Amino acid sequence: MLFTTIDGHKTAYRISSVAGHGRPTLLCVHGSGGDSSVWLNQFSGLAPDCTLIAPDLPGHGKTQGRGGYTVEEYAGWLESFAEALGLRSIIVLGYSLGGAVVQTFAHAYPTRVAGLILVSTAMRFIVAPEYLKVLQKDFHRAARASCDSAYAPGVMPELYHRGLEMLLSNGGEAMYEDVLACTQFDSTAWVGKISAAGLVISGNNDTITPPDSGRELAAKLPRGTFMSFSGAGHMVMQEAAEGFNGAVRYFITSKGEPS
To answer: How confident is the model at residue 258 (pLDDT cuts 50, 70, 90)?
Structure first.
């Protein structure tokens, strides 16, 4: 892990290699209650093709700072992070909540974005009020329920346990505030104004943000395309890592143009 300072707080991030030198830069944003470790399969599989950079969002992983950011605040924070690292013309990849952040970032800072990849995400999220209550009262139970929903049946146990450990280590407050931010997000009025090319990826067995949500999002983007992977759930970048990395590789080497 490397560190920089954003808004006076120590900020942790992973990087695969030095940015620049003609290599595409892929800025990866994790989801609710998570951290940059969700991208380990991408760091191992895509490092020869691009420079990967994945921060821990404020209050997550090893990054200091308060929780309770809205999606818009996360997008502003991401702009500060990109500026601190001198990133220009980047492809932004966002998973779940991170996908909402990336949509907002691409809309607010279009000159920064060469392309966007939106994973297991949507223009709006449906969250059961009962789940928010469980998050507040019994975080361990909620974290297990989240992992039960996030992975498709038959997932390798090590993936499930790694995901559960990540949620538990980041704590209930981060998870609750992130899920609350998701309930307040709705990009339907403006996502069609995003000019950068976009790739939307879903798992066919995703019960958190079903594939129809991804398909709807891709159709709304002026330069969007949709891809789904059978047998994968919400954690498609881990469950179908090889195919996922291949799709991302094609997208970034085609300079962000959809297939």
So the answer is: very low
Q: Looking at the chain, which runs of residues are DSSP E strands? A: 2-6, 9-15, 25-29, 51-55, 90-95, 113-119, 198-203, 224-229
Distance CA 128, CA 126 (A): 7
The superfamily (CATH) of domain 2-253 is Alpha/Beta hydrolase fold, catalytic domain (3.40.50.1820)
Residues 6 or more apart whose CB falls under 8 angstroms from that of 38 comprise 30, 31, 95, 163, 166, 235, 237, 238
**Judging by DSSP bridges, how do beta strands 198-203 and 224-229 pair with one another?**
parallel
Which residue type occupies 85?
A: L
Judge contact between 106 and 92, C-beta under 8 A.
Answer: yes
Closest to 127 (Cα-Cα) out of 74, 188, 172, 185: 185
For the stretch 91-146, pLDDT in tens is: 999 999 999 999 999 999 999 999 999 999 999 999 999 999 999 999 999 999 99
Domain residues of the chain, as ranges?
2-253
CA-wise closest residue to 99 among 5, 15, 206: 206
